[in-house]
Amino acid sequence: MTPPRISVLMSVYNDGPFVGAAIDSILAQTLTDFEFLIVDDLSTDDSLSVIQQRAEQDSRIRVLPHGKKGRVPALNRLISEARAPWLALMDSDDTCSADRFEKEMAFLESHQDHGAVSCNCTVIDEKGAPYWRPKIDRPLTHEGIVANLESGPLLNHNAVVLSREAIQSIGGYRKAYRHAEDYDLWLRLSQVTKLANLEEALTSYRIYPGQVSTAHVIEQTANAAIAWLAHCERLAGRPDPTEGQEALPSIEELDTIFDPGSAAYVRRRVIERTIYTPELLAGQGWPLLIAHARESKNKAPLWRLSARLLKHGHPAKALRLVMALIGG
């Protein structure tokens, strides 16, 4: 059997309110030569029934059985089952325009030295209405992406079409980089192929309460910072100390695994992203903040934070932060 041009990959977990719209936006593509592989990671809502209903209506959909193993094993399972030379990633709570595949494949076919392309996105709320968020100007060229990769994942995961050969050559997604597996993937892909972004917004990214990108912001940011440290090791021709690991080292262990100062670097990256968020004042965020206050050379933002804490009814935390800033 002749393989399709594209294998569309979607991992689903408890996205019942949104997965139908996500699937429908794929089925409406103007480029129709694709297979659509979907893994449901034992959702406890009606996600699977929505998926099965669509599968009964369109033979391009293939639902793969999968135990409750998590997002990364699900994505790697999808890659292993794909038959096409190109893989289109799609998140189960987002949507895309009907010409997404057509335009992304046109780019890849005219830039044969590239192994992945993404695009810009619009933002929608849980009801699908436009949601305002400051525009992110992502670099379009491989050179621009590589030059700015330290700042974060510059490709929208829900909008990427990439080479199956390229992603298999680097071993797919890595489980240790929980909630930052996409950023780790782009870093490793950038070392084996060229990446690009289309300027046009061809996908819609959905923002709603409880999604992973907001619920795990501390862990996500810390793991992304560790991914950058590992990337730098590979660029320097040294072994990646996280390769083959089931879990990442704690921040306290980083200075013995990477260069001295690595732990401080990760703490700084976390604080920079979360300094005015509730997550920083609870759980693992607060100890990171105190440690960062002791070691940071740029204390001005932290003094402002202590004043905000006092103003908003957190005198004990404000005092603790001040003590850390003055060396206590």
UniProtKB/TrEMBL annotation:
Key word Cytoplasm present? no
Q: Which InterPro entries match?
A: Glyco_trans_2-like, Nucleotide-diphossugar_trans
Superkingdom of origin: Bacteria
Q: Which Pfam families match?
A: Glycos_transf_2
A GO molecular-function term, please? Answer: hexosyltransferase activity
What Gene3D superfamilies does the record tag this protein with? Answer: Spore Coat Polysaccharide Biosynthesis Protein SpsA, Chain A
- Transmembrane ranges, per UniProt, are none
Q: Which keywords does this chain's UniProt record carry?
A: Transferase
Q: Does the keyword Acyltransferase apply?
A: no
Q: What SUPFAM superfamilies has UniProt attached to this entry?
A: Nucleotide-diphospho-sugar transferases
Q: Where is the Glycosyltransferase 2-like domain?
A: 7-166
The protein here is known as Glycosyltransferase
Q: What species is given as this protein's source?
A: Altericroceibacterium spongiae
